[in-house]
Amino acid sequence: MRGRQLRVELDCRVPETAAEFAELAQGWLEGALRRLGAPLMADLENAGPLPSEGLRDRSGLVPFGEPGSVWMSLVTAAAGAGGARSSIAAWSAQNWDRFVDRLQKVPVEASAKLSVLGAEGYPDVPFLNVSVERHPEQRDWVVLSCDGSTSREASPAEARAIRRVWADFLREQAELTVAGFGYLSDEADYEGPRTALEGALGLFPEETLGLLDTQLRGYSWITVVSPGVADALGGAEAITKTQAFDEVAVLRSGALWLEAAPDLAEYDMGRQHRVFEALAKVLPRGLPGRDRRARNRRLVYENAAEVAGGTESG
């Protein structure tokens, strides 16, 4: 059964060298698959090379494999004069090595899509999509993301433990980078690559990534803010005094880890409002719009400019 979808993301500047980019990307991809997809990865590696007939069939009528088996697609896209050129392969040890080698060329996308095949032999739930992407209009920034399904059959204690594994993974990765922004939420069912706030304001990452030294893309149960944004908010001590966060920690880069509650299940409307007020000064301006399709949004429907005492800046 499909439960709430989790999304974890870190945004940082593209490293100066191809080798540094490859190290960053490989660390994120392998780390997410090992930490967040551990049971499926064990089954995948025990299964050996996967069949590729389903990928090669353009009609979409050929199943990817046996129902109930584990599947992984490896996708890379390289920039070209006529647009991005994509390649896709079924997982095998050899194809994984080729996939990792392509990271040295600084692709615009490298994604590993892990799942269990459903009754018809096509990717279904549970799933884990791990990606490294550079947006066409913001090539200086790289977005490290991971989306995954949770099970409605998990007990509250099991679900809490799963969320903590995701949080620990995000923190470990944030300590290894100079993060411009990051978050962990369960608002990804509708928004996808946009934060819930971006979706409600009609904004896209291409518009907001370049502003991360002074502005957040949104706020969540866990939010990672850049050193510049941290300074604009008065630093860790000032943010702690707002009493909006259960934990405020300074990361190695000077970025801040802001955790609003011990667990996502405790991130209720009252906590959301306190976080919004604490961060309003560095949030995009505008009145968020409501959308009946976006029931998962954990937002305060007020204009951050008014709460911060500022003026509209567009």
Structural notes for this entry:
The protein is α+β, with helices and mostly antiparallel strands and 314 residues long. It folds into 2 domains: 1-177, no CATH class; 178-313, no CATH class. It has 12 helices and 10 strands. It has helices at residues 18-36, 38-47, 53-56, 93-102, 156-176, 188-191, 196-201, 205-208, 227-232, 235-241, 269-279, 304-308, and strands spanning 5-13, 70-78, 85-90, 109-117, 123-135, 138-149, 179-185, 222-225, 247-250, 256-259. It has a 10-stranded antiparallel β-sheet with strand order 3-2-4-5-6-1-7-8-10-9, with helices on both faces. Helix 1 (18-36) runs antiparallel to helix 5. The radius of gyration is 20 Å and the shape is globular. The termini are far apart. 39% of the residues are buried. The model has no long low-confidence stretch (mean pLDDT 92).
Q: In order across it, which strands form the biggest sheet? A: 3-2-4-5-6-1-7-8-10-9
Please state the average pLDDT score: 92
DSSP strand count: 10
How would you sum up the global shape?
Answer: globular
For the record, the count of structural domains works out to 2
Sheet having the most strands: 10 strands, antiparallel
Question: Gist?
Answer:
The chain has 314 residues and is of the alpha+beta class. The chain has twelve helices and ten strands.
Element layout with pairings:
Layout: E1 5-13, H1 18-36, H2 38-47, H3 53-56, E2 70-78, E3 85-90, H4 93-102, E4 109-117, E5 123-135, E6 138-149, H5 156-176, E7 179-185, H6 188-191, H7 196-201, H8 205-208, E8 222-225, H9 227-232, H10 235-241, E9 247-250, E10 256-259, H11 269-279, H12 304-308
Antiparallel strand pairs: 1-6, 1-7, 2-3, 2-4, 4-5, 5-6, 7-8, 8-10, 9-10
Helix pairs in contact: 1-5
